[in-house]
Amino acid sequence: MNDKSPSDQVLAVKDDSTERSIPTAWRQPFRDIVEAFIASDYRLENGVAGVAPVSPQTAAQIRDYLNSYGATLVALPEESWGSSTCLWYGDHWEALVDLWTQEEGSSDLVLQTKVTEANARFIIQVNLVYVP
C-alpha cells in the first residue's frame, strides 16, 4: 500500500477507492484496546485515550466471542500492521485490525472499528470482534 510519507508515517487518507494501512496515529490506541481486552476490560472502563466508551452489549459480544474462539489473545505485534486495513466511507473510516493469539500467532480474529475525526483528533469506536 502506498500511503506512507517520507518519514514512514502512515497517514489517515480520505480515499474511498483503496484500502490502506492503519495510520500511525491510531496504532497506540489499538494496542491499548487489545491490552484492555487481555485484562478482561471489554468496556474499556479504565479508559483508552482517543477511544469512545464501549456499550455493555458490545462488550458482552466481544467477551463471548473471544471466550468461544478458544485461544488466548496477546498484544499486537508490529506484524499486525502489515495486514490490518482501513477504508474511508465519506464521513468515517472503517478499520479492521488483525488480532493475534498465543496459540496461533496471527489469528482469524479481527477487531472492527469506526474512526471519525473531530477537532483535529481521531475518535475510535469499537464495534465488533469476529472472524470474517
Describe the structure.
By secondary structure, this protein is an alpha+beta fold. The protein has one domain (20-130): Nuclear Transport Factor 2, Chain: A. 22% of the residues lie in helices and 31% in strands. The chain is built from two helices and six strands. The chain has helices at 24-38, 56-69; strands at 20-21, 73-74, 85-88, 93-101, 105-118, 121-130. Strand 3 and strand 4 form a beta hairpin.
- The number of distinct helices, counting runs of at least 4 residues, comes to 2
Termini Cα gap:
21 Å
CATH class reads Alpha Beta
Average the pLDDT over all residues and give the rounded result: 93
Named at the architecture level, the CATH assignment is Roll
Query: Could you give a short account of the major beta sheet?
Result: 6 strands, antiparallel
Return residue spans where pLDDT drops below 50 for at least 5 consecutive residues: 1-6
Beta-strand residue percentage: 25-35%
SSE order:
EHHEEEEE
Helix/strand/pairing category: alpha+beta
Task: Give the tally of β-strands.
Answer: 6
Here the CATH topology equals Nuclear Transport Factor 2, Chain: A
Percent helix among the residues?
10-25%
Shape annotation = globular
Radius of gyration: 14 Å
Question: How many distinct folded domains?
Answer: 1
